[in-house]
Every structure is written in C-alpha cells, then in structure tokens.
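Researcher: Next sequence.
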Amino acid sequence: MVSAPDSTLELPKVESSALENDISDIKVDNIGDFTFPERNKYDSGFGITSKTIDYISDVKDDPDWVREFRHKALKIFLDKPTPTNWATKDLENIKFDEFRYYLSDGQKPKRSWDDVPEDIKKTFDRLGIPEQERKFLAGVEAQYDSEAAYSNIKASVSEQGVIFVNSSEGLKEHPEIFKKWFGKVIPTGDNKYSALNSAVFSGGSFIYVPPGVKVKHPLQAYFRINSEQFGQFERTLIIADEGAEVMYMEGCTAPKFETATLHSAVVELVALKGAKIQYVTVQNWSSNVFNLVTKRGIAMEDAEVRWIDCNIGSRLTMKYPGVIMKGKRARGEVISIALANSGQHQDTGAKMVHAADDTTSNVISKSISIGEGRSTYRGLVHIPKHLKGCKNNTECDALLINSSSRTDTYPAISVRGNQHATQHEASVSQVSADQIFYLMQRGLTEAEAMSLSVNGFINDLVKEFPMEYSVELKRLIDLEMEGSVG
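Model: Next structure:
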C-alpha cells in the first residue's frame, strides 16, 4: 500500500442551562448559518492530552482495544510536525489547544424522527433532511457535533442484510466485520490529521452491504457543527462485499463564528470483488472552518470506487480522495468541483495508485476562483513498472473570475514501463468581459451572467451528481456569485 504524502490534519462534566426552543433563537444569514444555544451534557474541555482521550473513551464506553488505539494515535499526532510542503501559512494558524474535541448531549441516536430533541430536529428540518429521506433515500444518519442524533434505515433495505449505523455502534455491535478493515485502508500514521482523527474520532457511518445486494436508493449522512471552538472528527467505514453496490451521500454545514472551527474526518471504502461504491459529497462549510480530510478506497478485482466531490466554503480545505486499485481490472474515479471565494483556499485533488494489471483510473477536476480566492489541484497517479495494461486519464481545468484570484496545478504522474496508456490535460481560463456583456444584453444582471458562465463551466460534472444534489449545488454557486463582480 502506498501512503499519501503528509498533507491534509481530569476533565469536568458540563451541565448546560435549559434550552429555549423558540425559532426566534436561531441566528440566520443563509440556509446553513444559524446556531442554537449549546445543550451539552459532556464536554471534553479545551485542548488535547491523554486525559482528553480517556474522557472520550469513558463517555463512549470504548472497548479496551479502541482506547489503546486512541492513545497510540495521540502520540503519533503529537510527534508528527505540521506539514511544511504546502499550505504552511494556513496550517500554522491552527491552534489545537483552542478547540474542544468532544461535545455531546449524552443521548443515543433516535430511530424515529419524532423522538429527536426539538432543537436538533429544527436544525435538520431547516436543512431539508426529513424531506429528502421521504423522497428518495434508503437511510439517513444525522450527526450533531460529536454524535449521531438520528439514524434510520428503511426496513426493505435492512431486510436485505444491509447494516447502516454510526461508527460507535458498528465497532461494538459488529466487531467481526468492523475491526477487520478499520484503520487498514488509512493507517493511523498516514498523516498528522489522520492520526488526530484516530485519537478523538466520534460519529461517522458504518455500512456493510452483503454479497450481491444492490442498494437501489442512496444512503445519506449529514454532518452539522453547531458549537463554537469545536472540532468534528467523524470516522466512516463502508464495506461492499462481493458483487454488492451502494451509493452514499454526505452533506456538511456549520454556522459562521468569529473563532475557528476544525473538521478532520477519515473515510475508508472497501469494494470487494465485483463491488461498486459511489461516494458523493457536497460540503458547504462556513468560512471559519479548517477542513482537513483523508479519504481513500480499495478496489479489489473487477471492483469500482467512485468519488464525486464538491467543495464550497471553509477557510482551508485539504482533501485528496484516493483509490488503490488492488485487483485486476479494478477501476477508480474522482470527479471534483471546488469553488474558492475571498479568504478561502481549496487545496483539493486525487490520488490513484495502480497495484494490479489492467486497472483503470479517471480524474476530472474543475475549480473556480473568485475575488482573492485560491484553488489548487494536487494529484498523484502511480503505475509501477511490473504492471501491464493500466490506463489513466487526468483532466484539471480552472476558471478565474477576477484578476486577483489564483489557481495552481500540481500533477504528479509516475508511470513506469511501456505497457500503459496515460493522458493529462490542464487548462486555465478567465470569464471574458465580452461574454458577460453579451449575456447582459439578453436581460441578465451582471451577477446572473457570471453565475450562468460558472454553471456552464461545470455543467458536464454537475450531471454526475444525483438530481437533488445538482439542484442544491447550482443554488450554492448562485449564492457564492452574489457580490463577486464589479
């Protein structure tokens, strides 16, 4: 297995006062920028030490092997220096002793929407989660700060033997499946921020799809940060057994605070022989969030792992979904859209590691930079000399909206031997004044014309998203374009 480069990331019990649930308590600027007063029963306090780890393990009643796993990960995190190869200035702004690493109201995830606490229910009502579940989802998990508040899977899917629970339930209730793959796709020491997640992980999804089962409708998780100076560290593990198929979708939001917020997830995908996993992300973090995520999948013989990734918002995102094609004829694909506005850096890309003959990978990345925003494509394709019949296609295109915006492309394509086919294409373009003028003559405002140009730039990739997400994506881009011209 080839590791990714080092990139990207005695405590008291706190009782909070009673919460007023009136809707007037919500602070609203846009659909995601609202927060309720905190109502945490458990709060690990600020900073991260061995006491923090024991506090989390005690609250979660971890098995001994999990507690040991966390402590080893903490040592790796503390020993590893902050990466200096890129985004150094942004990463140095992260003050780890100023975050809280675990917040929870102490309640177990509810199986009925009616049983969800009223304030949390209102949060996800505003974000449209119940409506999406009724219309087209096979199951939903809604995480609020450190723990899942709601977790449900349709009976027809559960009867097929599909497991869809949060990670804490997965490691306790299904240890024979969970432990076999947990931490195997992404080792604890892969990078500083995967080690951080391994030390304090809480929440996230565990999915197992039995052999031959094809889940017809998507499973979805929604990750919501509500609290200030908080770090969310969900851990997701998805296993598709031989011939199984599943689509998993995740959405992410957080309110805008004056202080920084940290999000550092780890996602491991395992597609066994002939299986297919499709993982769709639409993130809309507020501009105070440091988003340092490690995502990787393994594709066995004739299997396919497909990442569809949209990155909007955050102060800094460092995310490079990867696929290790470990079996013959395995396929890996990353389709990525990133939008960076002023004060934001979207450092995204993909990693494709060919480890068997006749494997195929495809990377298509499009980025948009607005105002003084910066987008970066960072890719890795590795094909060893001893293999034969491998294919790779890499396309990375960037669109600049203003003369002050910036884009960078760093493709690293290593192909040994002469029995492979690879191709790489990159382009940078700027929205022209003539194009905007032409559209404005047809009755559009300048902002509408700019938004239409951006949506046209990414239109072929947006088609790859499920319909409900493609509509949301267009709306988010329209919001980002407001005030971006002139």
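Model: Residues 442-486 form one domain. The chain is about 25% helix and 35% strand.
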